[in-house]
Design a protein that fits this description.
The chain is an alpha/beta fold. It is 31% helix and 11% strand.
C-alpha cells in the first residue's frame, strides 16, 4: 500500500445533498424549505422564537444576580503552600506575594489578589503579603512563627475619580496663574 492509495472505508464519507438541482433529484424547486415565509428565505435568525408565544427562556422564573462589585480573589490553602515548599517550588525565605504564588502554580487568576485560607497544616516560617486571609490561616501562620501583611487594594473607580479631581485642580491653578500674569 502506498500513500496515494490511502482511502476511507466504503460508505464512511457521504456526499452532501445538492439541493435545488431539478425535480428528479427529490430536492428541487423549493429545496426542502417549503413555501414562502421567513424560513424559506436567507438570513433567518429566529433561535428561541416561538411564533409570538412567550419564549421558554422568558417564561421561566429568574433567580439571583451577578454582583459587578464582587472581588475576584485567588484562594490558596496553607496546606498547598506547605506542599509547594516541601516540593521546592516555593522559597520560604523570601516574601510570599501574589506573583510568587502564581509562579509556583498555586494562584490562578484572581485579579484582585490572593486570599489565604486555613485548610491544612503549616510548619514553615513565612512572611506573606496578600490581599486577604481567613482567621484560621492568620493564626496558623503566626503560630508557625511567620507574619502576614494584608495589602489594601484601592477601588479603580475611586482612583479614577481622585485622578480626575487632581487634573481639575491643576487646570484651575494653571488658569489662575495665567490670569495673574496678565493683570
Amino acid at each position: 500500500m502506498k500513500l496515494n492509495e490511502l482511502r476511507d472505508n466504503a460508505g464512511a464519507r457521504k456526499g452532501r445533498m445538492r439541493v435545488g438541482r431539478g425535480i428528479g433529484s427529490g430536492k428541487g424547486k423549493t429545496a426542502g424549505r417549503g413555501q414562502k415565509g421567513q424560513t424559506s428565505r436567507s438570513g433567518v435568525s429566529i433561535f428561541g422564537f416561538e411564533g409570538g408565544q412567550m419564549p421558554l427562556h422568558m417564561r421561566l422564573p429568574k433567580r439571583g444576580f451577578n454582583n459587578i462589585f464582587a472581588k475576584d480573589y485567588s484562594e490558596v490553602n496553607i496546606g498547598a503552600i506547605q506542599k509547594a515548599i516541601d516540593a521546592g517550588k516555593l522559597d520560604a525565605k523570601g516574601t510570599l506575594d501574589h506573583d510568587a504564588l502564581k509562579a509556583a502554580g498555586l494562584a490562578r487568576g484572581g485579579k484582585d489578589g490572593v486570599r489565604v485560607l486555613g485548610k491544612g497544616e503549616l510548619k514553615a516560617k513565612l512572611v506573606m503579603k496578600v490581599a486577604g486571609a481567613s482567621k484560621g490561616a492568620r493564626e496558623a501562620i503566626e503560630k508557625a512563627g511567620g507574619s502576614i501583611e494584608i495589602i489594601e487594594r484601592k477601588n479603580p473607580a475611586e482612583l479614577a475619580a481622585a485622578k480626575k479631581g487632581k487634573a481639575r485642580e491643576a487646570r484651575l491653578a494653571d488658569k489662575s496663574a495665567k490670569s495673574a500674569a496678565k493683570a
